[in-house]
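Chain X:
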Amino acid sequence: MRLGVLFSGGKDSAYACNLAGMRDDVVCLITIASRNKESYMFHTPNVNLARLQSEACGIPLVEYETAGEKESELADLKAAIAEAKRTHNIGGVVSGAIMSVYQAARVQRICAELDLFCFNPLWYTDQREYMNKIIAEGFEILISGVFAYPLDEKLLGARVDERFMTALDKIAAKYRITLTGEGGEFETFTADAPFFKRRIAVDRATASCRNNNGLYTILEAHLEDKPPIAKSDAAADNTAGNAVANAADNADADGDSAGAASEHTAAVLICNLCSRKYPLSFAEYVNPVENIVKAAGYRYKTLHYSEIDAEINAGCEKDLRDIAAIILCGTALRDNEVTEEIADAGKFRFIREAADKNIPILGICAGFQVLARVFGGAVTNGIKERDLRIGMTKAKVIKTTGTSGESAASATIFENRDSFEAYELHKNAVTLPDCFEALAVADVDDGNGGNARILAAKHRDKEIYGVVFHPEVRNEYVVRNFLKTANLS
């Protein structure tokens, strides 16, 4: 697919661009230069150097300027993406969003309005693993801004390296600093990346900082040839690690950023429903679920839905013997492959077999649609603007009663919450099978003629759950609580 990358010049957009170029064709960078330094949407430090970065990597730049006012900046972003579609014939847009629903939802909506795919390959990534990759893969990242205590002027212009990350590990929890700077604690500038043909050398820059709020402004820079073999000098004086070492020494040093080791012998089967035509979708919709399962201490294996069907149809039912739970992941908004496949009666045989064996199943978004169709419900493709659901929705929990003295399913999954905020990203509507009951509905007027829109449901007799929303975003506890219903010894 021909892709345009939303490019700020920082590490996240650069890393997303590198990922996109591995499987698809990145044909342009899209940069928004905001005059509002406090913009919620756009990175601003050294964004004027996007032209030099474009020259460094040889990818054309589509550049727009915006005043940075809350609503008008979205119109400017849409105009820039529309220009990229018109001049470069892109079929999708890639962003470096990691956890910001505010940013991701707005880009998703703009892309939907322009009939474009939207990919966020860093979405809810494991932040420490991600930073490890940036360092190991040869990205040269400079700190271009600091905006949180105890980060100070010593960091400005310094390079992100392993020593920096080790130090940041120690202070992150104490000072509530995200390891990627996703919370706005620090900003970055990409001087070199694997997809750069030449690197950027800084000739002149200024650094100013007051009350742990500082900027590194690059005034002059030039392109230079890369050395034949890039070598990392972990002991270099100009490193971010040196700059935060003192603060790190005074912070708590406990915690394991690598995640919990597996405590269970039975495995969780994570089913990838994404079309193989869109490889970036795996990182956005499957990896975050894998991270939740791994952090909870469970073994898992991930298979594409077509692989599971093929194995079972070949008589390999033994592959389900060590499976104690199944999670059907979501897909991209414009990826309709799996919903079209549901109509084939020979598909998704493994779901029926798992249900017969009382293996718990959780269907997420498109996964819920698959469950609905398998058990006799319906999936309707939304054709009206109001059918498009992107962003956070207020959800109201329905207090189910439970049977035979068992605790109510809604209480088990939602931890006795009366309501919660849920992240939606879909346009299809689900009609529940008769064997399912609703667990949560949208607590808003959706224009459905007074009928509450279902957000979560459960099979009446089995531990089979479906959620329209994406619990991997802000509601990880739903996945963890589902796993507790399984016999994961």
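Chain Y:
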Amino acid sequence: AIWQAKVAPDVQGRVFAVRRLIAQVTAPIATAVAGPLADRLFEPALREGGAWVGTFGWLVGTGPGAGMGLMFVITGLAGVLIGLSGYLFPVIRHAETLLPDHVAATDEGGETAVATPVVTETA
């Protein structure tokens, strides 16, 4: 609702499309990065005798799958921190009151103008 109130109707489609594009482009990037990160960094570090066993082994265990478990924990915590940042930063928390609403076009009488469909006749 905040996007519809703050963005002019004539550009809402473009704005919503860009928002969707940004949200969806992260999925293939995450997929491309997560596999190699798990196989080459997290899993070896949490094998028996790995570099992170003493630090994170108590949390996710050691051995096969522990690296993916740690990645799961880290991404979950990142999501929580992003959500909290939306609350902790007043500029984000009060965006609805700080940003002006889109003002609807009015006619000379001060009433909201209503768009009239254009009908063209074809032969």
